[in-house]
Amino acid sequence: DAGVIQSPRHEVTEMGQEVTLRCKPISGHNSLFWYRQTMMRGLELLIYFNNNVPIDDSGMPEDRFSAKMPNASFSTLKIQPSEPRDSAVYFCASTKLAGARTDTQYFGPGTRLTVL
Amino acid sequence: AQSVTQLDSHVSVSEGTPVLLRCNYSSSYSPSLFWYVQHPNKGLQLLLKYTSAATLVKGINGFEAEFKKSETSFHLTKPSAHMSDAAEYFCVVRGDSTLTFGKGTMLLVSP
């Protein structure tokens, strides 16, 4: 299995631009998670989906952030407009079924976002 | 609600000596606990997990962790450190559906 795939691996953009991060979960996994990692705040859950439906988006910082999962094999995290404080590493993770006793989340390699 | 505290932000060991990374948790549920490792500029890799089976859990690369309910601890150990173990380690507790991560412990291994 290829594992969780994220693109791009690195993104440098200017303040005010729209940024779209992409994630392909492991085939057969029904739950997908977006995390943000910064030095100051560590790893934070932004949003997660079960069966393509957003379940908990309470971690999304503000309305500039949006996430979609149009099908079981693809998700996007969009920031519009981007700001320098959005600079972080964004991870996508997937698991067979969130909430199952034995579920294990598998992480992608991350997208390092720099907003100038 | 659940939380996890990693007691050391940095741990330094010499190659060949034992490793101990400490973690305490709190959870309203009977917890599932995990240790993940992150090498520089890499994603997170699962080392091991506890899900209410045996309290001593063996993971990859010679790591193991012991779940102690009375102490609400899940410390990570390895008998002999290797240079390739240098990385950041995260203790994680799972609530109903989501994971809560500790702040991480950076393991430094010197020759």
Tell me the major beta sheet of chain A: 7 strands, mixed
Largest interface: A-B, 25 and 22 residues
Shape estimate of chain B: globular
Find the structural class of chain A using helix and strand composition.
mainly beta
Proportion of residues in β-strands of chain B: over 45%
Rg of chain B is: 13 Å
Overall mean confidence score, pLDDT of chain B: 92
Shape of chain A: globular
Question: N-to-C SSE series of chain A?
Answer: EEEEEEEEEEE
Q: What structural class do the secondary elements of chain B suggest?
A: mainly beta
Helix content of chain B: under 10%
Short description:
The complex is a heterodimer of chains A (116) and B (111). In chain A, strands 2, 4, 5, 6, 9, 10 and 11 form a 7-stranded mixed β-sheet that branches. In chain A, strands 1-3-8-7 form a 4-stranded antiparallel β-sheet, with no helix packed on it. In chain A, strand 5 and strand 6 form a beta hairpin.
Summarize the structure in words.
The complex is a heterodimer of chains A (116) and B (111). Chain A is built from no helices and 11 strands. Chain A has 116 residues and is mostly beta strands. In chain A, the strands form 2 sheets. In chain A, strands 2, 4, 5, 6, 9, 10 and 11 form a 7-stranded mixed β-sheet that branches. In chain A, a hairpin with a 2-residue loop joins strand 5 and strand 6. The termini of chain A are far apart. The mean pLDDT of chain A is 92. Chain B is built from no helices and 12 strands. In chain B, the strands form 3 sheets. In chain B, strands 2, 5, 6, 10, 11 and 12 form a 6-stranded mixed β-sheet that branches. In chain B, strands 3-9-8-7 form a 4-stranded antiparallel β-sheet, with no helix packed on it. In chain B, a hairpin with a 5-residue loop joins strand 7 and strand 8. The radius of gyration of chain B is 13 Å and the shape is globular. Chain B starts with a strand and ends with a strand. The mean pLDDT of chain B is 92. Chains A and B meet through strand 5 and strand 10 of A and strand 5 and strand 6 of B.
